[in-house]
Write a structure and sequence with these properties.
Blueprint: E1 4-7, E2 10-13, H1 24-28, E3 31-33, E4 36-41, E5 46-50, H2 52-65, H3 74-88, E6 94-102, E7 116-123, E8 134-138, H4 159-171, E9 176-180, E10 186-189, E11 193-198, E12 201-204, H5 215-227, E13 231-234, H6 239-244, E14 247-252, E15 256-263, E16 266-267, H7 275-288, E17 299-301
Parallel strand pairs: 8-9, 8-15, 12-13
Antiparallel strand pairs: 1-2, 1-7, 3-6, 4-5, 4-6, 5-17, 6-7, 9-10, 11-12, 11-14, 14-15, 15-16
The structure holds pyridoxal-5'-phosphate.
Length: 306
């Protein structure tokens, strides 16, 4: 497999993309990241990049928060992403990681007077969590609030918060952590947004509960409303609502959709993937692989075959 990266303005074999040890972002976490997937569709002999425009719109908006300037427009980034996927030339799913970072070889905590750079790396990483479902633990680490470091900005340094929570969960024998906001509401999991189902209503934390404004979250909301005609509510969720939910699941680019089977040793619903979760997961898989014509506008072809 020939994985490539976009690095210092060029497409290079990934092993050749290297940064210096004094790189500002490496020392202080001053970078904005994103992640999008390329799904291989064998029937059409094509790779589709899922919701690429949305990912790059978010990425550029987040760059603004960290005062990073890497590319003038989303369209420039889309052009780079398509070419990068084409150069990888593989017939399998890929995960791409754009990173806009403070690139100066310079110590000193700040955002100003530093050079910015763009990197897009590639991995063949599969689903991040077991697809059959996960057992979660409420983290003792609170989600970092927007007034300290904005979670919506997907800043690399902020992920220490997620790492602390996930390490705690793993060490206690759980698959994943659910973090609470400072005011005690369910915020999100380590790498994913949280949904519950109660009495046929699909509920997810609002954007003001210190979450990343997930693109998979947005996809799930659209599919639940438009395809399953379900009521979707964005409102604060109490920790104990996780325990009494009929169904619960996590969603994100890295894990796709993952049923939550248990939280803090309380079985959620029947302790297996719920009916609505399964329906949504099936729809998501079809849409992401460009197998549903109504959603083709979300899928950017890499090879451009008719
Ligand atoms: C903390 C966090 N929440 C949620 C998500 C899901 O976001 P998306 O669906 O855009 O991948 C991610 C993944 O990037 C994440 O890191």
């Amino acid at each position: 497999m020939s994985l490539h990266a976009f690095f210092e303005g060029e497409f290079v074999p990934q092993e050749e993309a290297k940064i210096g040890i004094l790189t500002h972002a490496f020392n202080y976490g001053t970078a904005v990241m994103d992640g999008y997937r390329g799904f291989w569709n064998s029937g059409r002999d094509e790779m589709f990049l899922f919701r690429l425009r949305n990912h790059f719109d978010r990425f550029l908006a987040n760059c603004k928060i960290l005062r990073i300037q890497v590319a003038p427009t989303t369209d420039d980034l889309i052009g780079i992403a398509v070419e990068l996927a084409r150069r990888c030339a593989v017939k399998q799913d890929l995960l791409f990681r754009p990173l806009a970072y403070k690139a100066s070889q310079s110590l000193g905590v700040r955002l100003h007077d530093l050079a910015d750079a763009l990197l897009i790396s590639t991995t063949d990483m599969g689903p991040y969590l077991p697809e059959t479902g996960v057992r979660c633990r409420t983290a003792t680490w609170r989600r970092i609030p927007d007034i300290s470091v904005p979670a919506r900005a997907k800043i690399t340094g902020l992920y220490v918060n997620n790492a602390l929570a996930r390490a705690e969960a793993a060490q206690d024998g759980y698959d994943e952590a659910v973090m609470l906001s400072e005011n005690g509401h369910v915020s999100e999991a380590g790498p994913a947004n949280v949904f519950i189902v109660r009495k046929h209503r699909v509920i997810t934390p609002p954007v003001y509960d210190d979450i990343l404004e997930g693109i998979t979250r947005d996809t799930v909301i659209s599919l639940a409303r438009d395809e399953l005609e379900l009521e979707v509510v964005e409102r604060p969720i109490d920790r104990s609502e996780l325990y009494v939910a009929d169904e619960a699941f996590l969603c994100g680019t890295a894990n796709h959709m993952t049923p939550i089977l248990e939280v803090d040793r309380r079985v959620v619903g029947e302790g297996e993937e719920g009916l609505l979760t399964a329906k949504l997961r099936g729809l998501y898989q079809e849409v992401a692989r460009c197998a549903r014509p109504d959603y083709e506008h979300w899928c950017t072809p890499v090879l451009g075959r008719p």
